[in-house]
# Entry
Amino acid sequence: MLRYFLILTLYLFSTLASGWEDHALLTRKVLEGWMRRDVSAASYLNQSVQVESLQSFLWATKTTLPARMMEIETWARNREPGYQPLPKQLIYDPARPDCAKALDVCFEKALRINLDVPLRPMVYDPSGFYGRRRDFNRILDAREMMPSYIAADNLRNRFVSVPDHAYLRLADVIATASIQPDFGFDVYLYENNPSLFGKLYGFGSQPFGAAAIPYGSQGFFHMSSYHESGVLFLLMPTLKNTYPEYRAAMYMALSRFAAETSHPYWAALFMGWGLHYVQDMTQPYHSSLTRGLTYSSILTALVDKIRGNDKAFSDLTNIQANRHILLENIISHIMTSSKQDFDEYKLLLNANLIDSSRDNDIPGCAIQANYLRNEIVPRVERDASRYMADFHELLPTGYANNPEFNAGLFRDYDSLLLRDMSSSQRLRMSRELAPFLEWYGAYTRNCIRQYGMKA
# Structure
């Protein structure tokens, strides 16, 4: 039984590992709406910041950054259940000869991120504003942004490479950075993954899942098991080893450090990276691994599998994966559609993203006080218990409740799904999803207030 439970769990992790479909788009809309309504936010986010290379930042802070890195490590060891400590040989120490030879590689190893990801300056540019400027070039090859083993079909032509020392609007740096962790930052970090760096990082073997599947290894850094049933932890203790809070705390601490040491570009970049994990926790399929499933259905499927009947088990995992993918892509399709028929739904979702009426009702963004675990996930779970059943009910059976359908392979499935729904159904679905976008916006603004505007 345990063996098959693990198989089910690993399948869900590997299938559902990607977060919100388009962080850059959503974050940009949050920030634009905020700047229109708040003079202080506009003053902060409209600043121009000069691009600075990683090497320049590290050289300028080589005597002060190591202490901040150790503070982050100490916090993680003391506050994060299941945290695997940074190996001693990877501690960021520019005085160590091997580190001094390549500060950037040494720093990236201390962050324990994918060394195959190019950290070249870029900017999300949907309007073409930067692309019309001299020496800013549209990125046509996604390999300039991410490794070849990361899927990137929907990202082409939306980003622009940035020349050295150019100036960017701070809001654009944050929006761009908020999607970058999905470019492979957390892929192949385990010792049994097909990478050399994974064998150095000390995370051990990937707890479960196919070690060769890129996004399967990412799931443990982008999904939460913080409030799953004790039954799950009893069956698999390594479910506690999820790291979104660790990532958010690390990058937000680095953002504050960069601001304190007068490196505004890196302060904005680190902030955007940290926001990614905060925002992932507002996605209901990331705040809980078993969203929409009952333990009885899981156990029934597992018992059938043990008896030699795989159908219920396979059906359950396929349906769960389809629902997750459809939720994200429906929102993305509505938000980017030029169809007038979708204007009402787009306005509704946009209104919730930029609605700041509940910002003062939630505690300030104290990430190192286990903010993701104790604040964000419980709120999202409460809304999920109210709205997600209706969302599942609204999804046409032929698309979302059909185990023979594979949303990950079927092109334009979200467009066809929305086409087949009535206008009242589309409106109802938008209303069911709107609260999660409201949390996306609220926690994005709260964390920028705390780690940017107050830094």
Notes: The beta strands are 48-50, 122-124, 137-138, 159-161, 167-169. The chain has one domain: 23-453.
